[in-house]
């Protein structure tokens, strides 16, 4: 049997943790291997416990920080060389040296002053391994330069701690996102947006929930109900201020929920949409109707959702009556031209990460011009044109949404954007397209929170 010789210090890699280069002290006097990490916190469920931690792999460069996560194997009391006993989390991971890989157990401890970020104990050594205590680096040397190219390599898949902000934990979309996250090895928590409260301060703001401070999440998926848009976006802003990636940003949610604001943004970007007018004064009702080309026309409350608060006025007199009713309620509304050639149909394009991942054609009931599925409409798969695809992608981009449902009408002069939804439902689009949209969303989140290359210059250690 060929001897595998190790010196008292060696370079190694922990690929499962996304650590391509670690300098370790080999100590046969210690039974247990240890990784010197910080910000160590457990997460996940009782049957699938996880642990998340950060590590500065180069002791001389505190700006080089890598976030890791792994399944938790155990919690164990470990006594250090100075006689101190502490309860540590235990993980199992793969170690690699000179092309040879094998599994080892590693404990996690916050000992940032140590010269080596890892201690390799005797339980991690196979029978054919020999340690020469007077030699150093018997195996090939690595370099901390490996971390400089971390974003140019295939992103390391690590378990993420995710949260979905919703007041509907049992609806289809929430359950689909949770299932998709768990299938990919992540942990997802459901947070009721209305029960969050915030500690706002200059450094290290916090979000609290049911009497506890929420931990750091790798990403948050906001699914903010229309009735709490203002408070919900405030919670999202707080997470953004704490450095958490939010699938739908507070600015994008705010723009998409205010139909007037949304149409102004779309118009500024020269994205096609039905001719739109807005006013509040009763004196303007006649001219308002003329601005969109007369009846038939569509009137929409600014914060309408799922087709509610949307009315088709087939005659000028009917339009004036609806406008009068809306103004009597002191409600803000839009007036839009009716795209007759759409024939009661629209197209929902689901955009994730700058790509249309699915689309469907929705058709209203025979006696209803609205095509919303919540209003009894039906859906079928549809092949969209290149122009429709480009318009949907541009609309999501200018609304600053990484995931969005973009509703289009097929007009005689090209596609027209009706609405951009920041919290699109998954049930209709998944069942119609037969695509796992929830998994595509989680996959996009993985790419957004992949390890980033350090800002500081990475130095090679002496020797």
Give the topology, please:
Blueprint: E1 4-7, E2 9-14, E3 19-26, E4 33-36, E5 38-44, E6 49-55, E7 66-79, E8 85-97, E9 100-109, E10 118-120, E11 129-132, E12 161-165, H1 172-183, E13 187-191, E14 196-199, E15 206-209, E16 212-213, E17 219-222, H2 229-241, E18 245-246, H3 250-257, H4 259-268, E19 276-278, H5 285-291, E20 297-301, E21 310-313, H6 316-328, E22 333-337, E23 345-352, E24 355-363, E25 378-381, H7 386-398, E26 403-411, E27 414-421, H8 427-433, H9 437-448
Parallel strand pairs: 1-11, 3-10, 4-9, 12-13, 12-17, 17-18
Antiparallel strand pairs: 2-3, 4-10, 5-6, 6-7, 7-8, 8-9, 14-15, 15-16, 19-22, 20-21, 20-22, 23-24, 23-26, 24-25, 26-27
Structural class: alpha+beta
Give the radius of gyration: 28 Å
CATH topology heading of the largest domain: Cathepsin D, subunit A, domain 1
* Measured distance between first and last alpha carbons: 30 Å
Number of helices, where a helix is a run of at least 4 consecutive DSSP H or I residues: 9
Strand line-up in the sheet with most strands: 2-3-10-4-9-8-7-6-5
CATH classification, class level of the largest domain: Mainly Beta
Strand content: 25-35%
Write down the domain tally: 4
Determine the CATH superfamily of the largest domain.
Answer: Acid Proteases
Report the average pLDDT across residues: 85
Uncertain residue segments = 452-463
Coarse morphology: elongated
Q: In percent, how helical is the residue content?
A: 10-25%
CATH architecture identity of the largest domain: Beta Barrel
Number of strands: 27
Largest sheet: 9 strands, mixed
């Amino acid at each position: 049997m060929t001897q595998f010789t190790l010196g008292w210090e060696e370079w190694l890699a922990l690929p499962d943790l996304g650590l391509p280069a670690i300098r370790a002290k080999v100590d046969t006097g210690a039974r247990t291997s240890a990784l010197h990490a910080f910000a160590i916190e457990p997460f996940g469920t009782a049957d699938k416990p996880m642990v998340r931690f950060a590590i500065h792999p180069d002791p001389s460069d505190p700006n080089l920080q890598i976030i890791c996560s792994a399944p938790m194997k155990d919690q164990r009391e470990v006594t250090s060389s100075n006689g101190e006993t502490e309860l540590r989390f235990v993980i199992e991971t793969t170690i690699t040296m000179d092309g040879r890989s094998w599994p080892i157990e590693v404990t996690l401890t916050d000992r940032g002053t140590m010269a080596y970020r890892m201690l390799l104990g005797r339980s991690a050594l196979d029978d054919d391994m020999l340690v020469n205590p007077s030699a150093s680096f018997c195996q090939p040397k690595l370099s901390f330069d490996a971390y400089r190219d971390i974003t140019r390599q295939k992103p390391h898949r690590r378990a993420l701690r995710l949260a979905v902000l919703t007041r509907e934990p049992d609806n289809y979309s929430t359950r689909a996102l949770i299932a998709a996250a768990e299938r990919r090895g992540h942990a997802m928590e459901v947070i009721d947006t209305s029960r969050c409260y915030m500690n706002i301060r200059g450094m290290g703001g916090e979000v609290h929930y049911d009497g506890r401070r929420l931990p750091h999440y790798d990403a948050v998926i906001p699914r903010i109900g229309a009735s709490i848009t203002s408070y919900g976006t405030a919670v999202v802003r707080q997470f953004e201020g704490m450095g958490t990636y939010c699938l739908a940003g507070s600015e994008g949610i705010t723009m998409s929920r205010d139909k007037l604001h949304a149409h102004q943004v779309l118009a500024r970007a020269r994205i096609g949409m039905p001719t739109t007018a807005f006013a509040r004064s009763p004196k303007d009702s006649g001219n308002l109707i003329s601005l969109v080309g007369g009846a038939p026309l569509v009137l929409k409350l600014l914060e309408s959702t799922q087709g509610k608060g949307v009315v088709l006025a087939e005659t000028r007199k009917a339009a004036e009556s609806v406008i009068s009713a809306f103004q009597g309620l002191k409600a803000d509304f839009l007036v839009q031209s009716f795209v007759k050639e759409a024939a009661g149909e629209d197209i929902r394009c689901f955009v994730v990460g700058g790509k249309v991942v699915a689309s469907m054609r929705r058709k209203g009931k025979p006696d209803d011009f609205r095509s919303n599925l919540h209003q009894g409409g039906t859906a079928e798969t549809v092949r969209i044109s290149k122009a429709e695809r480009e318009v949907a992608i541009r609309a999501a981009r200018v609304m600053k949404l990484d995931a969005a449902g973009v509703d289009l009408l097929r007009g005689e002069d090209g596609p027209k954007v009706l609405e951009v939804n920041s919290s699109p439902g998954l049930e209709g689009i998944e069942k119609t397209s037969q695509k796992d949209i929830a998994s595509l969303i989680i996959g996009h989140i993985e790419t957004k929170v992949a390890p980033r290359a350090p800002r500081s210059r990475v130095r090679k250690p002496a020797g």
